[in-house]
Design a protein that fits this description.
- The protein is globular.
- It is built from 18 helices and no strands.
- It has helices spanning 2-14, 18-21, 23-30, 34-62, 64-84, 88-116, 119-150, 159-162, 164-178, 192-211, 219-241, 257-284, 290-296, 298-310, 316-340, 350-375, 381-409, 413-439.
- With 450 residues, it is an all-alpha fold.
């Protein structure tokens, strides 16, 4: 069951970044303009961000198992349409359709983990889920570079999308047999007013963050950003009074949930902008190919994966302090690599440094989201899942827009990377302080090893 869920998550996560590597090939093959390429790459992120909360609620209404399989089928068919697209316009529409499927399947993964695993088994499942969630972006870059570089069957960029078809078909055959879940006898209704407000608010808030930097931050971007922030605040107030809220605020009431989620969002946002700026520095200043830049990041992935899979076996006291130690290790590793890689890549020296940074990232996220989920009743599993999906995405696009501008404003790539890492360090300190507040709400006994 877990393998099917995580395979679907991997597909959806990878497709957020796999296209970035093939953007130039797509542009040349389809004679696409800059606006079309931007929509092909960023439209996926925008659409998933707008729909994640609504789709998490649809899991309560349709049943999480059914919603996951429906999203997986939609995503698979849309991937086929992407791979067969004859022109840029069709590819843009197909990418948006693909994002709709991803938005429907992704929140069901964490919801089903919360509902069907408990105790040590849930912590192990969350550890693996965290690894998949965080490393999907880096994996997308590596796989994208391999697939495009191989030019499979002379199809150029198309296998980037077509690779999802056999995987999706296999999961759709196996999924109905192994996935557990039943629709509630009294499923909640869908708050259409809440959907409308949130959709407009998320669109207004995320669109300028995604498209504004490349457009030079025009006036419309600032207006939309302000309107989006106001509408998001209005949505929160509305949900507090709604009879059947789209995002139940009761999920946030237990002590420690709010700061815990905030800490998770911060570390995921820092990871995204660190990955982006380090990759840009490797390619622009150190002349790495996209594939070489992806391979250079492998030690980070190994460090993250190793700790994600092992932290639940640590002594409870160590588990309890990992969310505090993790951001420190992440910041230390990121700062060290930024200083050493100013003019040339440090080679093998980078391996333990990036591994420490990756392990710190995992320590700051995996145990913490497990603690947060243990504080909330499983009745609100979809709300926690929505917050755990939407929050990191908003943190990521905000960090990329804000700190990405810091990087590009620097006189040299190396200076930009150092400035971004300095800002990341400050944010990670804030994240560690938020994690400290969760410790008082989570007893060591609740984190005991298997």
């Amino acid at each position: 069951m877990l393998a099917v869920l995580l395979a679907g998550q991997v597909m959806a996560s990878m497709d957020g970044s796999i296209v970035s590597v093939s953007a130039q090939t797509i542009r040349a093959d389809l004679d696409a303009g800059g606006a079309a390429i931007q929509l092909i790459v960023s439209g996926y992120l925008l659409t998933t961000g707008v729909l994640l909360v609504t789709c998490a609620r649809l899991g309560d209404i349709l049943g999480h198992r059914r919603a996951f399989l429906l999203g997986l089928a939609w995503f698979t068919v849309a991937s086929l349409l992407c791979g067969l697209a004859p022109n840029a316009a069709v590819l843009v529409v197909a990418r948006i359709a693909q994002a709709i499927g991803a938005a429907l399947l992704m929140p069901q993964v964490f919801s089903l983990i919360q509902l069907h695993w408990e105790g040590a088994a849930r912590r192990r499942a969350i550890g693996i889920y965290s690894m998949v969630l965080a490393l999907g972006v880096a994996l997308g870059q590596i796989v994208g570079g391999l697939v495009v570089g191989a030019d499979l069957f002379g199809l150029g960029w198309r296998p980037v999308f077509l690779i999802n078809i056999p995987i999706g078909v296999v999961l759709l055959v196996i999924g109905p047999r192994v996935l557990l879940g039943a629709r509630s006898d009294d499923p909640p209704g869908l708050d259409l007013a809440g959907v409308a407000v949130l959709t407009v608010a998320m669109t207004a808030f995320t669109a300028p963050l995604i498209f504004g930097p490349d457009s030079g931050w025009p006036v419309w971007a600032w207006i939309a950003l302000g309107c989006g922030a106001i509408l998001l605040a209005a949505f929160v107030r509305y949900e507090a009074k709604a009879r059947q809220p789209l995002l139940d605020p009761k999920a946030l009431r237990p002590v420690g949930v709010k700061p815990g989620l905030a800490a998770c969002w911060i570390i995921m946002g820092c990871y995204t902008v660190f990955l982006l700026t380090l990759t840009l520095h490797l390619q622009s200043a150190l002349r790495f190919t996209p594939f070489e830049a992806g391979v250079a990041f492998v030690p980070y992935a190994v460090g993250f994966g190793s700790l994600s899979l092992s932290w639940n076996r640590f002594h409870p006291r160590l588990q309890n302090v990992l969310p505090l130690l993790g951001p420190v290790a992440f910041a230390t590793g990121a700062a060290t690599i930024a200083l050493l890689a100013r003019d040339q890549w440090p080679g093998l020296v980078s391996v333990p440094i990036l591994a420490i940074a990756g392990a710190g990232h995992a320590a700051g996220y995996s145990p913490l989201i497990a603690q947060v989920s243990s504080l909330v009743d499983t009745r609100y599993a979809s709300a926690v899942s929505a917050l755990n999906s939407t929050g990191p995405l908003l943190a990521s696009v905000t960090a990329v827009a804000g700190l990405g501008s810091v990087y590009f404003a620097a006189p040299a790539s190396a200076d930009g990377l150092v400035r971004v890492v300095a800002a990341i360090t400050g944010l990670l300190v804030i994240g560690a302080l938020c994690a400290q507040r969760v410790r008082s709400a989570s007893s060591p006994q609740s984190m005991s090893p298997p």
